[in-house]
Design goal:
The protein is of the alpha/beta class. The protein contains 14 helices and eight strands. Helix 8 links the parallel strand 6 and strand 7. Helix 7 packs parallel to helix 8.
Length: about 375
């Protein structure tokens, strides 16, 4: 045998334990021998402390289990800002935020602004406006334009039935965002950024205050990008409002914006009957007051109409299908209003009945 293996006792300087390994020498001319390769691998593996190796495997398993139980999912953004239509004012505000992010070194180091703003490394944005105006889409697109990963959270994601766990979930999200340099996005942020409770009477009140205090602390020291989105910005605590550097309002699109949104959703592969530009002009005119999400829903309704109208034989999307879909989406806003009216009528009837009964009882007493 050109290999000469022998047992040897090894000692680990990390854990202080000893184990029995093997060692040996070899003749390079016999390295193609399977036995030589086996012995070589065995000797190499015995160099590593088995106790430290086992401990490391256990720690990795715990870490993997911990990550599986965390409330967030690390996402690769599906969009960039090129995919989003923004009104001029909103676009300018986001461009200003991007200018700060991309030119941090120039502003804070070269121009020396860090001397008076040592905690300004982070960028906190607040997207507010009506539902369906593109707040969530823009947050993801901003991450995509910066080449960063995206973490999206809501109150239901971080809330826990165990005391103290909600605040821990918030800290864990910030730690992950810092570790991988991800954009951290909080949807329906008014539930998170509301005023802290002064009259604490229950354990849940303590939990809410703990959550909001933790969020304030994390925002203060975080050096990455955080985006909040809400439909109810007036519910924010002033302490949070003052820590947000960019408040970006999302309005419903005007006629020009609607034309661009319709043009985006009417993808070239869709067979369209008539002049495309004329159809888009007409659609923009009749869809004033609708959001980008509404228009997406219009397309989701119109395309099946075209299929059914043609009995699935060479279907073509017509202006009529699109106009009917716009009417359908507008009627969606009325869903539940008949129930509200019935409830109001019932309350009025009960109130009138109550007055009538009281009058009859008074007459009996007389």
């Amino acid at each position: 045998m050109f290999w000469r293996q022998k047992k040897i006792t090894r000692h680990c300087d990390v854990c202080g334990k000893s184990w029995e390994g093997v060692t040996g020498g070899f003749n390079p001319k016999k390295m193609d021998s399977l036995e030589a390769i086996r012995c070589y691998k065995e000797a190499k593996e015995s160099l590593e402390c088995p106790f430290c190796k086992e401990q490391k495997m256990k720690e990795n398993m715990v870490e993997e289990k911990k990550e599986e139980s965390l409330p967030y999912i690390l996402q690769e953004p599906r969009y960039t800002l090129e995919d989003v239509f923004l009104p001029a004012k909103s676009k300018l505000q986001i461009d200003e935020a991007l200018a700060k992010i991309k030119n941090f070194y120039k502003i804070y180091i070269e121009w020396g602004f860090k001397a008076v703003d040592p905690c300004g490394a982070g960028t906190v944005l607040n997207f507010y406006g009506k539902p369906g105006t593109g707040k969530t889409l823009t947050a993801e697109a901003l991450a995509g334009s910066l080449g960063k990963k995206f973490i999206s959270l809501g109150m239901s994601d971080v809330e826990s039935k165990y005391m103290g766990e909600t605040a821990k979930n918030i800290r864990a999200a910030f730690e992950c965002a810092k570790k991988v340099d991800a954009v951290l996005f909080f949807d329906e942020a008014d539930t998170l950024l509301g005023a802290r409770l002064s009259n604490v009477t229950q354990g849940i009140d303590n939990e809410v205050n703990s959550l909001r205090s933790t969020l304030l602390i994390e925002l203060e020291k975080f050096e990455g990008i955080v985006i909040f989105a809400t439909n109810f910005e007036k519910n924010y605590d002033k302490a949070f409002v003052s820590r947000i550097t960019h408040h970006v309002q999302f309005d419903l699109p005007d006629e020009e914006g609607l034309r661009k949104i319709w043009d985006k959703f009417l993808v070239p592969q869709i067979p369209l009957e008539g002049d495309r530009e004329s159809i888009i002009m007409k659609l923009a005119d009749i869809s004033l007051g609708l959001s980008g999400r509404n228009i997406r829903n219009c397309m989701r309704l119109a395309l099946p109409k075209a299929i059914l109208d043609s009995n699935n034989e060479n279907p073509v999307l017509k202006l009529e299908h699109l106009m009917n879909a716009v009417d359908d989406v507008r009627n969606h806003d009325k869903v539940g209003t008949d129930v509200s009216k019935r409830n109001e009528s019932s309350r009025a009837a009960l109130k009138a009945l109550g007055v009538k009964i009281n009058n009859e009882e008074n007459n009996k007493e007389i």
